[in-house]
Amino acid sequence: MAVASFYRRVLPSPPAIEFPSPEGKRLFCEALQNGTMEGFFKLISHFQTQSEPAYCGLASLSMVLNALAIDPHRKWKGPWRWYDESMLDCCEPLEKVKAEGITFGKVACLAQCAGAKVESFRTNQCNIDDFRHNVIKCSSSEDCHLVASYSRKPLKQTGIGHFSPIGGYHAESDMVLILDVARFKYPPHWVPLALLWEAMDTIDNATGHRRGFMLISGYEKAPSLLYTLNCRDESWLSIVKYLINDVPILLKSEDLKSASQVLDCVLKSLPACAGDFIKQILEVRRQEEDGSTLSNEEKERHALKGEILKQVHETVLFRYVTDILSSSITNDNLKEDIVTVCCQGTTLLPGVSVCRTRIGFKATGVTCMKANNDNLTAISGITVSGGNEQGINILEPVSASVAESTCSSTFDVPVIVQLASNAAITVLLLALPASTWSGVKDANLLVEIQDLFSTENFANPLRNEILHLRQQFYFLRRCADEETSDDLKFPVCP
């Protein structure tokens, strides 16, 4: 059956004014003279058309991340690191986004997971004057961009919900420039700010919440190097529920006398999918790419990851976690971990299309790669996808002493993976809010626990890693399924 096709739509005007029209050009020139088009040039340099009808949120975010020059630390194609819609899948599977679109909270989640600083506001959290203030703030700067989530109907446009970045502001007419990422449908256009506010102040039927806007900016340096929280798999909801709701009740119900008993109680009841919630940020290379191809930046980043891991290993909490988990982890568990880690890594290789359910991985050992005079540790193996085999090395950050032992062939794959698993669980526990341990009844023991989880005495690399994960954790708590709360703003980290 033939399906009707369309070549663009006529932009309803009024209320909109086409950007390339004479009136649109006049608004642009005047706004430029008034200094409220500063963010436009970075955005327009990375302007893209959404590649799927439901990818407006992903295209808007990809455009903003590239405009902010945020390094994804993973390859897009060839040797190039670059944000593309296809890489924004940590909070929602792309198949689901393609079919259903994406919600306000999930876009904010994606921005946070990508390493951006995010401030999100629904229209019931602020007023039109707040919105205008933030539009002017972002339009007057190259370092912050505003993405609006709005309904097209008040603008007399076809469609329902939509995301697009705001490219500028004209003060005299109180109009904003929408850089519409559905360029196959509408060109960039100016609309009255009050009308855009009305379009945002609508209910998203998918969540029952109002739409709004988010301010996205970059950090001076990457907020996280080694770990990130992952909400792509729906199992993350059960992990958050356990850690936030169940653990305080569990601790209150037990007569615990020591820190080891507290941790044993928490870890023995930890859901099996906990390892899917916290992930290492992996660097994967084909085996034909030896260590000499690493840039100085990559080697420095890898060395810093090793330093962070060393600091994790030196914590008292890591020793507790290792003692408890060493008695409960089997070789089968480790094999599953290895396959999971390496399959995830393979999906980052340029030119490799991997279906998660059809990939196989066989670990062949631990490799000592040479990069100039430095030793780099890697888990070596073979991935199989669609009948094709590819030898890969997963660059595994390890502390200097472990790296030396690895390159002396005294460590094997299960040992490396177990160390990585223990460290990841340690970092996850350190990232939990202080209220997690409120169920401990013994006052002296509670003080000991609070001291165990304090970041005050940590060196800056590890402390920054923990504080970033705490932000992520807080954010995920607030936007979990978008039914629990409207407040998507971050706490201020100390």
TrEMBL record:
<protein>
    <recommendedName>
        <fullName>glutathione gamma-glutamylcysteinyltransferase</fullName>
        <ecNumber>2.3.2.15</ecNumber>
    </recommendedName>
</protein>
<dbReference type="InterPro" id="IPR007719">
    <property type="entry name" value="PCS_N"/>
</dbReference>
<dbReference type="Pfam" id="PF05023">
    <property type="entry name" value="Phytochelatin"/>
</dbReference>
<dbReference type="GO" id="GO:0010273">
    <property type="term" value="P:detoxification of copper ion"/>
</dbReference>
<dbReference type="GO" id="GO:0098849">
    <property type="term" value="P:cellular detoxification of cadmium ion"/>
</dbReference>
<feature type="domain" description="Peptidase C83">
    <location>
        <begin position="1"/>
        <end position="221"/>
    </location>
</feature>
<dbReference type="Pfam" id="PF09328">
    <property type="entry name" value="Phytochelatin_C"/>
</dbReference>
<keyword id="KW-0808">Transferase</keyword>
<dbReference type="GO" id="GO:0046938">
    <property type="term" value="P:phytochelatin biosynthetic process"/>
</dbReference>
<dbReference type="InterPro" id="IPR015407">
    <property type="entry name" value="Phytochelatin_synthase_C"/>
</dbReference>
<keyword id="KW-0104">Cadmium</keyword>
<dbReference type="InterPro" id="IPR040409">
    <property type="entry name" value="PCS-like"/>
</dbReference>
<keyword id="KW-0479">Metal-binding</keyword>
<dbReference type="GO" id="GO:0046872">
    <property type="term" value="F:metal ion binding"/>
</dbReference>
<dbReference type="GO" id="GO:0016756">
    <property type="term" value="F:glutathione gamma-glutamylcysteinyltransferase activity"/>
</dbReference>
